[in-house]
Design goal:
688 residues, mainly beta, 6-stranded parallel beta barrel, 6 helices, 57 strands, 43% strand
Length: 688
């Protein structure tokens, strides 16, 4: 063979060998162990390779799993040797695999690998061993149909490590604590199934980071939850259920704990702390958080706690303290917050702020704004209800702004505004709602509205400058001060009554007496500054007059007149057009044309000289229409005479006093009679 030919052969063989090595990669190997091929002596599983352990297979040596170790048995197997590596451990059958080999410390199993439990039960040292998912590297545990049983467990145990567990189906039962982010980074995702443990720690140590996300299924803590104990923690609840004893968000100094709830429920049977010595936040846009004892926003010096509720329900079956010894903030932008009593700024140096723009905050007990610290309550929307006493301390401020509603009482026997004597600027809506009698003697100012609810009698006895409307929806509102609502327009609705105490002459900014409710002037007088026409006033009086005995259930009446009429004494409700846009209605006797509570010569002159007697023309009370038939005639004259009050002094003496009643002036009565006779003669002459 020539040298040239030999060279070509050698070159061809080399190229063939090279192409062969490039075109045929190494095949992934699967080695199966079972009853006929056992034990598996351990060793290294290379990336891409699989060791399959079927029924009957055992393991006798340490395993370095950088590929896949698939356990596929229906019985029970304990692996006492160590299992390390960065590959995958897979459980695919119904049996029980017990990992008993330890590495870093006694009774501790480390899984710095991916562990898939789609069937069967994975036990860590018979369920009594500690489990570390991500100890010095990265560990993943996926539970999707099977179960895991362990003692205290860590996700991201050491600095720089990361551990993630996802439970989509099946269970993970932890007999002691769960640390999500021990000193490293940890994440627990519950998308179905259940995880149970004693206490749960999210971000346990300084520098750690732990996140739990529950989108379905259950995370049950028989102990407390610490979201950011020393590091950073986050709990995200979008569906499913979380249970715990107590809750701590941002426990130690420098820690951060945040909880976000968009749906689902978190039931906390103990005390709930948002910001202990660290920073804690609760952000709710849906779902519910319930606590069976007190809740604190900013509980210890140096900490801060903030809750933002824009949807869902946060219910505390106990006290809510906003700023216990530090800074606490509640922002109500929707949804519902409920508790018994609450305090804003409880301790010396504390600062508590609550702001409502929408939603409801219901305090079944009392609300104190600035107890020993600084407190601020601002309402620009939504509803804040106080079932007990609303009070302020030295550094307490209440801002009731346009759009905001403050309700005192819930229809029972409690509910007091500022001790019943304090002053409030109301530019929103102030609701009083009690079922029994109560009194407020403080001063109301501002442009806001007042609403009276509840079946009880509520008395306003202070002079106020409030210019907004007052609506009486239920029960009775008593104006016990002439200027209690002198700038407010009052509307009694069906079931509501406006009432005056004896002999009070009250001024009102406005009055709507034809809205279905009742105005009872008693023995007093109301003067309405504007907005009520004489025609509307008379309509209301006719309604309140009823069948003539002043027994109407709406309109304007007088309970005193009704009592007198029932006893055969002529009394009524009189009215005046004051000529300046104002009108008055008052307890009156027929003949008292100018309603000064005495019948005298002025009234006689009005009756005789105003020219309406027997003309058939429409007439007013001032002109002598005392029986509300719209005319002045002999019937009105008889009412005038039959009262027997002419020149007899004040017939409406103050309650408890006895007025001297002189005999009627004979000359006066004769004069009136002559005047009436003359009017009758003139009337007959016109008729002839």
């Amino acid at each position: 063979m020539s040298f040239a030919r030999l060279s070509r052969v050698v070159l061809a063989v080399g190229v063939l060998a090279l192409l062969t090595s490039l075109a045929v990669p190494a095949r992934a190997a699967t080695t199966t162990y079972d009853t006929n091929n056992t034990p598996y002596a351990g060793g290294a599983i290379n990336p891409g390779d699989t060791v399959l352990l079927n029924d009957g297979a055992t393991v006798t040596g340490d395993v370095i799993d950088n590929g896949t170790l698939q356990w596929n048995q229906t019985g029970a197997l304990t692996i006492s040797s160590t299992l390390t590596g960065t590959g995958t451990l897979s459980l695919t059958n119904t049996g029980t695999l017990n990992l008993a080999g330890t590495t870093v410390s006694a009774n501790t199993v480390v899984l710095d690998m991916t562990t898939d439990v789609s069937a069967g039960l994975l036990q860590i040292r018979s369920g009594n061993g500690f489990l570390r998912i991500g100890n010095s590297g990265t560990g993943l545990l996926n539970v999707n149909g099977g179960s895991v049983a362990s003692n205290e467990s860590f996700l991201g145990s050491s600095v720089g490590s990361n551990g993630t567990v996802t439970v989509a189906n099946g269970t993970w039962a932890i007999s002691w604590h769960l640390h999500v982010g021990g000193s490293g980074g940890g994440a627990l995702n519950v998308t179905g199934g259940s995880v149970s443990n004693n206490a749960g720690f999210l971000g346990k140590s300084v520098g750690s980071n732990g996140t739990v996300t529950v989108s379905s299924g259950t995370w049950a803590n028989s102990g407390s939850i610490y979201v950011g104990q020393g590091g950073a923690g986050a709990l995200n609840l979008s569906e499913g259920r979380v249970t715990s004893n107590q809750g701590y968000l941002g426990q130690l100094a420098g820690s951060r704990g945040g909880v976000t709830v968009s749906n689902g429920t978190w039931s906390n049977s103990g005390v709930f702390y948002v910001g202990v010595s660290g920073t804690g936040t609760l952000d709710m846009s849906g779902g519910s958080v319930t606590n069976n004892f007190a809740s604190y926003l900013g509980s210890s010096a140096g900490g801060s706690g903030a809750a933002t509720v824009s949807g869902g329900t946060w219910a505390t079956n106990g006290l809510l303290i906003i700023g216990q010894l530090s800074v606490g903030t509640l922002a109500l932008n929707g949804g519902s917050v409920t508790n018994t009593s609450a305090t804003l700024g409880n301790g010396t140096g504390s600062n508590g702020t609550a702001t409502a723009t929408s939603g409801t905050w219901t305090n079944s007990g009392s609300l104190t704004v600035g107890s020993s610290g600084t407190g601020t309550l601002t309402m620009s929307g939504g509803l804040v209800t106080v079932g007990g006493t609303l009070s302020t301390g030295t550094y307490g401020t209440i801002n009731l702004n346009a759009g905001g509603t403050l309700q005192i009482g819930v229809g029972g026997t409690t509910g007091v505004l500022l001790g019943g004597t304090g002053s409030l600027t109301n530019n929103g809506t102030l609701v009083f709602n009690r079922g029994n009698a109560s009194t407020y003697s403080g001063v109301l100012s501002g442009s806001g509205a007042v609403v009276k609810r509840g079946a009880g009698t509520f008395t306003l006895s202070g002079a106020s400058s409030l210019s907004g409307p007052t609506t009486i929806e239920q029960g009775t509102l008593v104006i016990a001060n002439a200027a209690a609502l002198s700038a407010s327009s009052i509307t009694p609705l069906a079931g509501g009554t406006l009432s005056l105490p004896p002999n009070l002459q009250a001024s009102l900014g406005g009055l709507n007496p034809n809205a279905g409710g009742l105005v009872d002037v008693g023995t007093g007088m109301v003067t309405v500054a504007q907005g009520l026409t004489p025609a509307a006033l008379v309509t209301a009086i006719l309604t309140g007059r009823g069948d003539g005995s002043w027994n109407g259930t709406s309109g304007i009446t007088s309970s005193a007149a009704a009592t007198d009429v029932a006893s055969g004494i002529l009394r009524a409700v009189g009215w005046l057009d004051n000529g300046d846009g104002s009108v008055s209605a008052a307890f009156a006797a027929p003949g008292d044309t100018n309603i000064d509570w005495q019948v005298d010569v002025v009234d006689a002159l009005n009756f005789v000289t105003l020219g309406k007697f027997d003309t058939g023309l429409p007439a007013t009370w001032l002109e002598g229409d005392f029986n509300y038939d719209g005319l002045v005639d002999i019937l009105d004259a008889l009412d005038f005479f039959n009262t027997g009050l002419y020149d007899a002094g004040n017939y409406n003496a103050a309650s408890g006093s006895i007025a001297a009643v002189p005999e009627p002036s004979v000359l006066g009565l004769v004069g009136i009679g002559a005047g009436v006779a003359g009017l009758m003669a003139m009337s007959r002459k016109r008729a002839g």
